[in-house]
Amino acid sequence: MKFLILILTLIVSQTFAQIKVHKHLTIDDGLISNEVLSIVQDSKGYMWFATFKGISIWDGNNFKNIKKENGLTSSAVLNLLETSDSTMVINTFGKGIVTIKNNVFDTIDTEDGLTTNFVTKIRLLNDEPIIVSSAPQVLQNGKLKSFLTKPELINGPITDFIIDGDGTIYITSRNGFYVKTKDKETLYTTKDGLLTNITSFLKKDFNGNILIGSSLGLNKYNNGIISTLEFNGKPVNWTIADILCAKDGTNYYSGDNGLLIEKNGKVELLTIENGLLENPIFTLGEDKSGNIYLGYSRGGISIYTPEKFTNYEGEEFAANSILQYNNEFLLGTENGIAVLSDKSIKSITMKNGIISNYIRSITKKNNDIFIGTDAGLNILNKNKIISSIKTDKATQGIYDIEFSKFGDLVLSVRRQGITLISDQKNYQNPFITSFINTIDTTNKGNARGHGANVFLSKKNNNDKINGKIFNYINRSNGILSSWILDMLFTRDSTLVLGYHGSGVSFYKNGILKHFGKDEGLSNGIVQILLEDSENNLWIGTAQGGICIYKNGIIVDTLNVKKGLTSDDVRGIVQYSNNLFYVITDNGLNVITKKGNDFFIRQIKKEDGLISNNCNRNALYVDNDKNLWIGTTKGVSIFNPKTDKPITEPPKVYITGLEVFNESFPLEKLKNSNRLNYDQNYLKFIYSGINLSAPKKTIYKYKLVGVDKDWVTSKENNVQYTSLEKGEYLFEVKAKNQWGYWSEPAQLAFVINPAWWETWWTRLMFVVTLGFLLWLAFQYRLNYLLKLERLRTKIASDLHDEVGSMLTQISLNVDFLSFTNDEKKKEEKSNFIRSKSKEIISIMNDIVWSIDSRNDNLESLVGRINNFAFDHCSQKDISLNFIKNIDNPNKPLKITFRQNIMLIAKEAINNAVKYSDCSELIVKIKNSKNGFELLIKDNGKGFDIENVRKGSGLKNMKMRAESINANIDFTNENGFSVKVTKDKI
Prior knowledge:
By secondary structure, this protein is α+β, with helices and mostly antiparallel strands.
């Protein structure tokens, strides 16, 4: 009785809070403002948050914000809704209505017929927006019409309304609550039970109640009766800011003091002690998965998943072992035992009589609770410590407690091995007697023995302590290690031992078998054991995941590669035939067995778990089938009944495109369907809307034309580089955490070929090449023709001039042979000599004219100079040769060179022979302004008219015209010939 009085005296009762709201969104996450005024989910799955600074659109991971500069008439957005044609209707503060459809903004204000720009709220009736203000209006096909004429019973503006399916009209106002049925109209006031006549808004719940919100609480109306919402037996008398009637029939009321939840006739209040960011909540919303969104007036947004997780945070709840006893839960921690009930928490520590505060294991048998600590064992019964057994100081705690089929207490004691505790009447049962004389069939243990322990001082079997018989099993009995983390009695009474480093051992009927890494175990550190309903042994290891053992072999291994959160497995329970829960150092795993396959889902801190770092052996299923999970930060209570499959896959959208890391208008590509050849460095951005578990969304994408198969990724974007010209189809689909895949979103486009790869460019190239070949052919043909003409001309010149002279020479030679007249011989000889020189000169001219080495200006100038010098020297005529040329090496066409030379020869020859001049001027000039040849003498001149009858001047003029040059003859102070040409 001493212990009983001590415990009851020292247990301290404390009030405590359950953390039920775990996820929050604030400006730190990308929310445009923490002052949230309205929440709605659109038909695509996006959440829209109206705030005092604009609108935030959330896809579960990222925010897109809309501000005044993007098209809003005011930054303050009071509320919003969506019509069936995906038009978002937005009520701005004092600036009328804004609509958004297909990213096109439109404004509706007093200029469009709106009664006032100060709209109270907007409602949806028969898919038509109702604009509630001093005079409600309906928006039909873009036009405003009057709606709901104010009844005479109402003074002041209508604040809200509901029109029921049977035509009943409900209206809130500043002087009461108005109801109009087919038969009558009634105005309810405080005399009828209203908390205040100033009523603000209405909602109808799934039970048919009309819910009336006001600044003094909430009233309910049903069949003419007005009642008041109560909490803890008292009327709720604080401001109700919003009402949400959830799809599951739960009513949520937000207000000054937190979130009121009404379900099945019970009312619960959540406050900051339950995880809210602040107590005043302005607005409420719900998504298609049933998550509830709480919009604060200053704190941002909280997301509440009803009844899924309840957390107790703090080291006093960081359970290593969990047990339900009657209506209480015992959490064994490093600071003692926390005892949880519905309304209080109690603590049991060394001050209350237990051996140590470090609790490693707790179990029960009948009405006794067995507590394993790092210093020994306590047994409690009806709040009384009935036994305390201290272990040797060298031991390091009792890691597990089991019971044999004979009722023996089996303890795994680190650094000692196994301690067997039996009643005196039953200490010689087959389990005890055979175990202390074990046969090691694998020869992996030490030599058999009885008493010697390799770690502790010698202990004797059959010791009597506190009326119990103690026996000890250690390495001398064949077990592989004295550090046993977990033990399990299978259905056939086999004792399975899980070692820290040595695998597992199986003991039955005096035979010990070992199974380790050499036999196929993935890791030697065995932390947890479970026998499933099909007699398979699940072996949870510290570094190798879960090995499933059957009939002496490992039949399957579950690890990170197959979907586990970690290979460090710390707890396993079988919840139902095909459903298992596994905790690791990185969260909770839900394993569903489908035939021979396993489907694994992960639940982590972002889903509500208090911490991902779960404690070993701290996984427990209570009588209500809730899952208790002990972590380093506290304990989480998970309700699997709320974990319902989400069979609707995420809606996936291609939301953006980047070209060379620069944003590219997606609508532009959809409209044109084409990109230039140099726009081939693309980044596709996409989003799968999975608000229940956004971080667990898995994508598969494929670019038809590049990827042969689907590519799996967790990222919401993919980049392609150096895409070739051609047609492409980008596809992406998304999978939720339950394994349901969406239909792919698609984007078809074409990368145009480079301009030099187009058909018209190739055609132009062929045409151009053909034209160039034709030009080359024509050039070659013209060259051959010119060459032929030159040959003909040379032949003609030779025939006409040289042939004639040779004929004359031949005749004179013949004449010499027939005459003896010396005078005539000398005359004929001189004639022959003169003609021979002319022939030589003509031949030199022909050779010079056809030699391509002379096709330059310097050669022409030199030729004219030599010719003039030779002829002037014959008659002692003074030659003044002047040249002024910019580029002596300038190439000349053969026709130009020939004709200029012939003109010069003709002019020089005429001056020397016929002018009786004493001086001859030859001037050649060439610059960028053109070419000029001047030949002038100071002789007696010519009679131009008579000279023109001759052939000399005609020939010079003809030659000048053939090269498109001008020629002028001047008979003044001698005779001059001037040839000019603009460009040579």
